[in-house]
Specification:
Arc Repressor Mutant, subunit A; 3 domains; 7-stranded mixed sheet; two-stranded antiparallel ribbon; about 40% helix
């Protein structure tokens, strides 16, 4: 059996205490035990190591060369154990570790930066890794445990996953600045009946931003004039800026300010808002996940301020 299997932390503590205080009696007082048990533990330690570590004399205790070498390493071992215990406690409390979060599209322009800033202020030693993923990829990544949290829209009910709405966002039409409708205070869908539109691709399932927009047009008897499809809001706004057409964006995308564009909100009577949700595994009760969820909830009130 190796020494590592036979030497206990208590023996290391007692030996280091003797070295630091210069006597068995003073060491026993420092660690709050009587002297005989402490002496026995140090003697057992010497038997396991196989060499004398301490010289006992009338003037106290001194270290042998072997004892001095062992003292230095034993001190480092005890410090490492203390550090490991502290790290474990802090990780268990959500103050240390790594958290993988799935994000998408316009959330990286406003929502995610605000949540990240608030989270870093509270948990500066937690590493948050952001992964740009669409909704379906986030769900798969949650099930595969590649991410702990997903932030997106239009989550379906998913077994084993918990979804919570953070807030809802207003919808805006995005116009070239010189467009005849760009100075409007509010917009209606019928105003866009003949406008060239830049839209986002549809997905296979009957959910998603484009699906909802097309449903709104259909419900109002409008056949939208789609001239271009793009994968993301940055591309859409850039094409609007070049004068190709009109597009759509939510509140969080309005931080994307390119020359020559105007964001016009839809009239409240249109009753169109898009909900942003956060999703995680139901069984995940880790402190890190709980901490991030709470920060996201606390942030949502200040994320979108109507202007």
């Amino acid at each position: 059996m190796s020494a590592a299997q036979q030497v206990g932390i208590r023996q290391l503590r007692y030996f280091v205490a003797v070295m630091q205080h210069g006597s068995f009696r003073a060491a026993a007082d420092a660690v709050h035990i009587s002297q005989p048990p402490l002496t026995r533990q140090v003697q057992q330690l010497e038997e396991v190591i196989g060499v004398r570590l301490l010289e006992r004399g009338a003037r106290g205790v001194t270290a042998t060369p072997a004892g001095q070498a062992f003292f230095e390493d034993a001190t480092n071992i005890l410090q490492l154990i203390d550090s490991a215990a502290t790290r474990a406690r802090r990780t268990g409390m959500g103050q240390l570790g790594r958290l993988d979060v799935g994000v998408f599209g316009s959330t990286v322009l406003n929502t995610i930066p605000r949540i990240m800033k608030a989270f870093r202020e509270l948990y500066p030693e937690v590493e948050v890794v952001l992964h740009n993923m669409d909704r379906e990829t986030q769900v798969r990544a949650l099930r595969d445990r590649r991410i702990a949290i997903g932030i997106n829209r239009f989550f379906d009910d998913e077994p084993g996953l918990h979804c919570e709405a953070l807030y809802s966002e207003r919808l805006f039409a995005v116009f070239p600045a010189n467009h005849r409708l760009a100075e409007r205070h509010t917009m209606r869908f019928r105003d866009l009946a003949n406008e060239p539109l830049i839209m986002y691709p549809r997905v296979s399932r009957p959910t998603g931003f484009t699906y909802e927009l097309m449903k709104i047009f259909h419900d109002r008897g409008i056949n939208p004039n789609i001239v271009q499809q793009v994968d993301g809001v940055v591309t859409a706004v850039a094409l609007v800026s070049s004068g190709i057409g009109t597009s759509f964006a939510v509140d969080s995308a309005r931080t994307l300010q390119l020359p020559g564009i105007r964001y016009v909100p839809f009239d409240p009577t249109e009753n169109v808002r898009f909900e942003l949700s956060i999703i995680w595994r139901e069984e995940d009760d880790s402190a890190l996940t709980r901490s991030f969820l709470q920060v996201a909830r606390d942030c949502d009130k200040g994320i979108l301020e109507p202007t």
